[in-house]
Amino acid sequence: MRLQQSNIKMRHWITIISLLLAVQLQASSINILTTASATKNANIGVLVKRLSTGEVVDGYRSTNLIPPASTMKLFTTATALEQLGSDYHIPTYLKYTGTIEQSVLHGDLYIVGQGDPTLGGNHWGSTNFLYQWSKAIRQAGITRIDGSVIGDVSYYDGDAISPGWLYEDMGNYYAPGIFALAYMDNTTNILLRSGAIGSVATVIRTIPEIPGLQFENHIRCTEINYDGAYVHGLPYQNCRYLTGSIPSNHGSFGVKGDIPNPALLLAQHLTNHLRHEGIEVRDSAKYIAEDDRKAKTLLYTHYSDSLGAIVVATNQHSINLNAEMLFRNLGAQRGLPCTIHNASEVVKQFWHNRGVDIFTARILDGCGLAPQNGLSADNFVNLLTYMARSREHTSFMQSLPVSGQSGTLKGFLAKTELDGKVHAKSGTIKGTKNYAGYIELPDGDKLVFAILVNSGSGTNKQIQHAIEQYLLDVYRHCK
């Protein structure tokens, strides 16, 4: 009996010692973030769990709401995959009003957007789809249009930019207006001629050319060796304010900005293409932002690449346009036109129904550009745990960049023990570095983690280094 009691006491003390050692390991790991000069005064939220058991490996203020930056895209893309499936294709409709008589359309041709971000985009080929459209129009027996080609963006409401976005971002390529019709990534390349130090750069042209676009240009040529220029402007307005600086004596230099009205530009390009193909169009191209309620006949349906492919591009390259359009499309479940508020409520309700409660979270957009967004490390780990067992797991995993190898993680943990072993999404704003994803362990298990660091005092590179050291320390304790 005494021997049995002694054995029980021994096991009891062994358990206590093991727990104390585990606490020491966790404390030593999290201290890397809480004591590093770049992160010690930051708002930090951390959670690391074993995927197989749900055991908490490490945690620190894991329920704090912190701006997620681009890690927000994990919720947007996961919701889209779960609700629509990776094989879903987003439609764009060609419709017409009036009648077709003796090869003449007595009415208007409408391009009706439903939120496809791929039309003419760099990741999806070129504008070859215009040939498909002109072929379909000719096959419908039309050789003349006694009206206009009209870009219809009424599927979304009038909030072409999130109310949470900062003015300094609006008009730049990474914060374009969000319309139900996207075209050429809603991005234009502004070609400048760089001159002597102190001179104002000259605007040469834009690619694509945007009819009527004007510039208030104050870009200076300086001693810098990088792109320090900014583009400011609002959707639909055909004037862009250029500030900042570019390298001097550099010849031509490209600066990316947004397309103020992609629906109108697409309608103009289709009009020009039809005329080139011998199909007359009487009137100039137009666009409508509100449904004109006219009776329309479907002529042709264009389908995007698969949703799975769109999600891969979105997360690998952190494309804000794609994420925003997928996010807005989710709002259609609560009524049309699609709104930001409805999209946010759909995302919150969907994950609440699956045990990932984010009703206390702040979701103002789908890409993470709004600094008022707020999610916790706990939210992300719960999402990632769910997606690890989802029927869409393969597509979701393929979309995550791999440490040291691909996408936005190509320089993260490169040439370390974790090179190629971390599948995660990053999020970066000045002073903010976030990562959420999976770490492969030698025994075949995975760690699910989220690290959110906001308002760090160091540079983004210094914050990244502290996070890398933290993850390496956790990995060494768990492998």
Give the helices and strands, then pairings.
Blueprint lengths: L1 H34 L7 E8 L5 E5 L11 H13 L4 E8 L2 E3 L2 E3 L2 E4 L16 H11 L4 E2 L3 E4 L34 E8 L7 E6 L6 E4 L2 E3 L5 E5 L6 E9 L3 E8 L3 H15 L3 E2 L4 E3 L8 E10 H11 L2 H11 L9 H13 L24 H11 L5 H6 L23 E8 L2 E9 L5 E9 L5 H19 L1
Parallel strand pairs: 5-7, 6-8, 7-16, 8-17, 11-14, 12-14
Antiparallel strand pairs: 1-2, 1-21, 3-6, 3-18, 4-5, 9-10, 9-15, 13-14, 19-20, 20-21
Written account of the structure:
30% of the residues lie in helices and 25% in strands. The strands form 5 sheets. It has a 5-stranded antiparallel β-sheet with strand order 2-1-21-20-19, sandwiched between helices. Strands 17-8-6-3-18 form a 5-stranded mixed β-sheet. The chain is built from 10 helices and 21 strands. The longest helix has 34 residues, at 2-35. Helix 5 (307-317) packs across helix 6 (320-330). Residues 1-25 have low confidence and may be disordered. By secondary structure, the protein is an alpha/beta fold. The protein has helices at residues 2-35, 72-84, 129-139, 262-276, 307-317, 320-330, 340-352, 377-387, 393-398, 460-478, and strands spanning 43-50, 56-60, 89-96, 99-101, 104-106, 109-112, 144-145, 149-152, 187-194, 202-207, 214-217, 220-222, 228-232, 239-247, 251-258, 280-281, 286-288, 297-306, 422-429, 432-440, 446-454. It is globular, with a radius of gyration of 26 Å.
Q: Terminal Cα separation, in Å? A: 39 Å
Overall 3D geometry? globular
What is the CATH class name of the domain at 30-85 and 309-478?
Alpha Beta
* Mean pLDDT level: 93
